[in-house]
Design brief:
CATH topology of one domain in chain A: Rossmann fold
Oligomer: homodimer
Shape of chain A: globular
Strand content of chain A: 15-25%
Structural class of chain A: alpha/beta
Largest interface: A-B, 32 and 32 residues
CATH superfamily of one domain in chain A: CofD-like domains
Amino acid sequence: MIAVLSGGVGGSRFLQGLVRVVPPEEVVAIVNTGDDEEFFGLYVSPDPDIVTYALGGIVDEERGWGVRGDTFRWLEAMRRFGHETWFQIGDRDLATHLYRTRRLREGATPSQVAGELAERLGVRARVLPMSDGRVRTVVETEAPRLPTGRGALPFQRYLVQRGARDRVLGLRFEGAGGARPAPGVLEALREAEFILIAPSDPLASIGPILALPGVREALASRRDRVAGVSPIVAGRSLRPPAAELLAGLGHEVSALGVARLYRDLARVFVLDREDAGLTPAVRELGLEPVMADTIMRDAAAKEALARATLEALG
Amino acid sequence: MIAVLSGGVGGSRFLQGLVRVVPPEEVVAIVNTGDDEEFFGLYVSPDPDIVTYALGGIVDEERGWGVRGDTFRWLEAMRRFGHETWFQIGDRDLATHLYRTRRLREGATPSQVAGELAERLGVRARVLPMSDGRVRTVVETEAPRLPTGRGALPFQRYLVQRGARDRVLGLRFEGAGGARPAPGVLEALREAEFILIAPSDPLASIGPILALPGVREALASRRDRVAGVSPIVAGRSLRPPAAELLAGLGHEVSALGVARLYRDLARVFVLDREDAGLTPAVRELGLEPVMADTIMRDAAAKEALARATLEALG
């Protein structure tokens, strides 16, 4: 069994590759829920949904999120009612959130609901939200005062509503210290043959998972079986806000900056061929650098990246 | 000011005609909410929505309900999750229910929400749900035993899910006796120059409104200013289940059967020219029969029916 720590878009693409390399049934995705948010009274869990859509074959591959070919009629109608509509939820996508919201009200846990959604979409890998507790990723910024406190923005507001344009002063995962990893998470980390940290935002996507009690320790204690993959290529992130967060919080915006964050947790570190020059510094951190093409342009590239990562560990 | 008791499709068409005859600001529609239902955790109020869509110019004129040109993508996605999807809610329509559900959770009343929706859709007439309390129209049938009790079907299940095919044994309006008419309803009935009973289902649509404390009395006391319009033409109803309910509950399935229901409440009774033969019997009931074309095929027909009804009173 292979456990994968994952955020949304980057992680889901990596997982798409992985399930072509190993039997999907042997993959457990442990997915960030710090970005979860309520919109219009609906509980939206963006990263687990992206992963489920991607593995279920219905994701909008171009955007990386949402359902392929989806429309936004309900949202257009909502705009007419004067509602905030900065968070783009498609008509088909909406069914997922209605389903989740209803099941949660009925008393189901987020991980039960994630399992049901995955099953309905024919996903054979296991998709585990990182916790059934509520963890809120909050970005402290220089944005004007908000109801959430001076410049403190819930993650989706920071990223989507304000386009990650505010200078970042801090990042916190509210509730993470008291939230238990979801049933199966620590077991997966204990029993996995390998643990992979997907090329997701190391701070905003992987950070909340690592902030849960026992997770960081679980990786550190099995460090020789862990590989991390850099989402930063040539000093840039493919999508915001990984670079913005690294910079704002005083990290180097490079694969090396990411490697430093993973040095105690992983033995192997996968970085892009473009960053070949960083391998000596990565090695100096005590990590085994592995070069690969990390930009997952198509199915073959996703598969190759997953294969290279596994081979480096194996 | 003109007060109109209305159900969904038939009533909304009548109201479309009326606002072409008198200034829309002078029309108060008092709309049945006994058919309200929760689907997927959303509070759906079919009749007030139909009226609002019709007066807002966005109704699907062909079907008589929902939003013109709407799609059903979210519902198709919901089907995939194994949910019941017999109640057709379109993508745009859905925004209305999400909006309402959210506002009700925030503590708004149904009549406040109806006012907000009408305003957003540019409706100048007043759309009043009959009550801010919960009234449930239940049809007692010969259907197999259900969780609601032996053959007792909430109205939408009877009409939409089961296609009004079960023999009707009874009809009740749960909660009506203890539900107060919404703010403005009794005032409108007291102060209206005329009160019109739209060509809606007399039992299932007008019945719940009349069952509210004070409404029947309000009409009876102003009977000389009240006109009822028959939804039954030549012994048939244009849409189910008016005929089915009349028959099941032992009434004559004809304009005369409807006239008997309204005899204590109205002075004028409008029936279709096809039913000319019934006028003596209607007159014998103490009602003034008025012949008109009651099948509202187009805008001109709607307007003509409203005009004929008002002229008979005036």
